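Thread amino acids onto this structure.
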């Protein structure tokens, strides 16, 4: 398993939030369920450094790449390892 920034994940990648840096822009995401231990799946990444759509805690959220850079996610080396 490896730890990556959420902004570096590609669509359909799944992981578990391992660490949350604490700038104010991330605190709103924490309040919506992006907290340590939560599973997160990337659904869509907009082109040209646009936002990404993620699913966590039964919600779909739009997240700016700048904010996603402050969330660290543990992902399996192979997607079959995440279950």
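Threaded sequence (83 positions):
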């Amino acid at each position: 398993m490896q730890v990556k920034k959420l902004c570096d994940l590609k669509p359909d990648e799944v992981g578990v939030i391992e660490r949350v840096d604490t700038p104010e822009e991330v605190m709103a995401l924490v309040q919506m369920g992006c907290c340590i231990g939560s599973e997160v799946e990337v659904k869509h990444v907009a082109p040209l450094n646009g936002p990404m759509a993620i699913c966590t805690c039964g919600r779909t959220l739009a997240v700016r790449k700048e904010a996603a850079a402050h969330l660290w996610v543990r992902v399996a080396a192979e997607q079959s390892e995440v279950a």
